[in-house]
Hints:
Number of domains: 2
Order of helices and strands: HHHHHHHHHHH
Mean pLDDT: 89
Helix content: over 70%
Shape: flat
CATH topology of the largest domain: Ferritin
CATH class of the largest domain: Mainly Alpha
Low-confidence stretches: 209-221
CATH architecture of the largest domain: Up-down Bundle
Strand content: under 5%
Number of strands: 0
Largest sheet: none
Amino acid sequence: xxxxxxxxxxxxxxxxxxxxxxxxxxxxxxxxKMEKLIRKVIPENILLEKTTYDAVGxxxxxxxxxxxxxxxxxxxRIYYLGGSATTKADKPKIGNxxxxxxxxxxxxxxxxxxxYRKIIDxxxxxxxxxxxxxxEKIYGEEEQHxxxxxxxxxxxxxxxxxxxxxxxxxxxxxxxxxxALLNKAVAAEISAIIQYTNQxxxxxxxxxxxKNTALEVITESNKxxxxxxxxxxxxxVEMEHLExxxxxxYLLEGEAVxxxxxxxxxxxxxxDFLKLDHEAENTAIxxYRKIIEEALKRGDTQTRRxxxxxxxxxxxxxxxxxxxxx
Length: 326
């Protein structure tokens, strides 16, 4: 390799990965928390056709997806340089109001720009022009995020309704142990998103390597490329699951967790990815069936139906991986 890469350089790039994963989770959970915030503001604001909450919620989701794509791009570069991309995220900072979301966003983006200027400088010093170009592009997009958050950071939050509202009888089913169970699903989805994103980029690199059979040469593909394409589609669905589950928790006046559980596992080969992901889907399906059973006992029809839909999609993922591991 023409670029002289050091462990310190890879560590610097992995700091960027950790930051990108952090803000992706942070912005997605903030987006999901919008329903909870809307219900706290004065009725007159709720009756508006479009509110500030709608505007902020939309770009937070867009930013969340874009940040995870940034993480994927950086991971891909790390693997190309011979390093190993991290699965660890810095701690997200959610907040409890639009202004707090914006202020936390400003802080996160400012920290990113400082780090990325450092990386751009380091890449230039070792003639790693490709990495420099990658981070210059990401830098420009992070600047746009910063400017957007700055628009809302100084705003005054909408007045909230009464702090003490008697708990309706039907809402008494939403106990702390129930929220803990739902949060296991949030943690599992975050784990899957990180795991599949990392594996996708590693598989992309493996797919560039030599074709070993005549069929691979003719089709210009190999197992790693097939797995990489499969993981990309699966990752996007898991992002939707995270959005729906965390939104449901916030709507019911709970708080979503942001730590992945189990710890994401990557592996070294396409076969490793498939086995690990096959087991991850199995674990998720078992957990989600347990949640469905508990929701049925409590009469929480909305949550039950949501997880029934999610389980069907997770089963599709399971069988997709199963086709390869049998």
